[in-house]
Amino acid sequence: MSPRIVPASSDAARRRDTPLQITVDGAAVAGVEGQTVAGVLLAAGRRSWRAGPSGAPRGVFCGIGACFDCLVTVNGERDVRACRRRAVDGDAVSTQSRAGTGEPR
Amino acid sequence: MTRHVVIVGAGPAGLAAAASALRAGARVTLLDTAERPGGQYHRMLPDAYRAERNGRLHHGWARFDRLRRHVLGHPRCAWWPESAVWSLERSDPGDPAPPLVHVLRGPADGAGRDRLVLRPDALVLAPGAHDRVLPFPGWDLPGVYTAGAAQALAKGERVVVGDRVVIGGAGPFLLPVAASLIEAGSAVLAVLEANPARTVARGWGRRPWELAPQAGKAGELAEYAALLARHRVPYRTGRAVVEARGDGRVEEVVTARLRADWSVLPGTERVVAVDAACVSHGFSPQLELPAAAGCALRDTASGPFTEVDGDQLTSVPGVYAAGEITGIAGAPAARAEGLLAGWLAAGGAPAAPELRPLRRARDRARAFAGRLAAAHPIGAGWPGWLRADTVVCRCEETDFGTLCRAADDRAGGAARAVKLGTRAGLGPCQARICGPTVAELLRRRAAGAPGRPAEGLAPATPHHRPIAQPIRLGELARPPRDPHEKENTP
Prior knowledge:
The complex is a heterodimer of chains A (about 100) and B (about 500). Chain A is mainly beta and about 100 residues long. Chain A has one helix at about 35-45; strands spanning about 5, 20-25, 25-30, 50, 55-60, 70-75, 75-80, 90-95. Chain A contains 1 helix and 8 strands; from the N terminus they run E-E-E-H-E-E-E-E-E. In chain A, strand 6 and strand 7 (about 75-80) form a beta hairpin. The model of chain A has no long low-confidence stretch (mean pLDDT about 95). In chain B, helix 3 (about 145-155) crosses helix 4, helix 5 (about 195-205) runs antiparallel to helix 9 (about 355-375) and helix 8 runs antiparallel to helix 9. The chains are: A mainly beta (about 100), B alpha/beta (about 500).
């Protein structure tokens, strides 16, 4: 199984979700208003979306903005911490890779 | 004139500081990087979830909710959500004014955030801490999370990291994380405390009368323990996650019995199939702001913390510190420190009678922090878990073997040279995650290599980040705005 969101119908916190949709590298991904970009990606079953210098996959690690593993590009803004940025309906998210970028290793 | 107190961080310490500063008559600006107050301890659901019962996910919700409404609704309080302090500008030598506070306000890491400068009469720093995670083979696989991440996702947005989860590391924090995951529907296979029962019992059991005033915290932990028992989740001491394996994501973890020093007892390894592993070996205080303000740090066995006096005042005039950056002691301690810091930062009388119980509570909280550190230390044997190809710096993928070779190089083994040569700590996180680990590994290599030439330059402290939070060049190029009278209009 993969990461997921607690269904609103069985959530002890009694949520009333509003759906939203973002695109990730052009593909539509459904989420819920209020979720972070990382939350949308995780709940859609994605564990990793960024590549480190060797190409090694990275996703959420610290979840609170300290590790910078989860960086994505949102509407053209690079290096946004996905765990800290709220997703907005219509956001165009693209994934980032440091593999083969010629950046110093 | 009314004093203006700026408080950075709206967790248990910052919120308490705000309430107390308001009570003492000050004007308060309360900042947090999050959209809602509460910090990591009371991480709230987003407004957009329209949750009727957010409190069901929290311990001590009613009290927090009253405090938050009181502070945020107060006419003398300006609440600045989504506000990152990216720099503290020290005043000239001899000027007793606290530093100027440079703020970026707007969506996290956004390009068009508002750039503002605050000129406080006093500053209270309460930025909190994040998990400290020691490296082990495979800890960089997707599906391995810090325990704090798993809890933040479950409590803060109802996302569950996996269905079969092992939680490991050290400290009582593992219990509420397990509780959050169980509540959200994960099967928690085990909670592993690396320290042996003997160490934990000795740490907690010493001078038991000191624990009585912390009954609230003890009761909270007892509730978590009861929940674990109800769900038949084993809590094991002296065992740790020492490896994670999988193809592109974690599929299994290796757990092993540890000796008291955290070295692995050979032959005790067990393989457990999981889809997520959550690990925390303690906490790293977020020291970039106290370091930027020039506050003295105090070294402890668990690393450096901000030094404060009996009034929560740091070594810098007008700069107070509260919560985890003064020592890891949990939310009740943070509240007591925040109440003191806020009152005194606001110019409240240091001899006010209502401060006496607060000071007592704070002192007890500090004793509790000492007890916590004694009960859940990091054992010296953990580097034995590492292999030559184990990643130590997640950002730059610097492995243990490369670090050892650089450290042993007689010409270049100094901390600065190792950093530049291996790039460990130079990636996007700026050593927030690997900094303490690399420093510890180098210290040990140096201790085992006599005759090393003296360093030409003092090693930069791993907490010194002139830019405390990322700022974009475009934002930097725009002149900052002085919000003075407009602070109450968000």
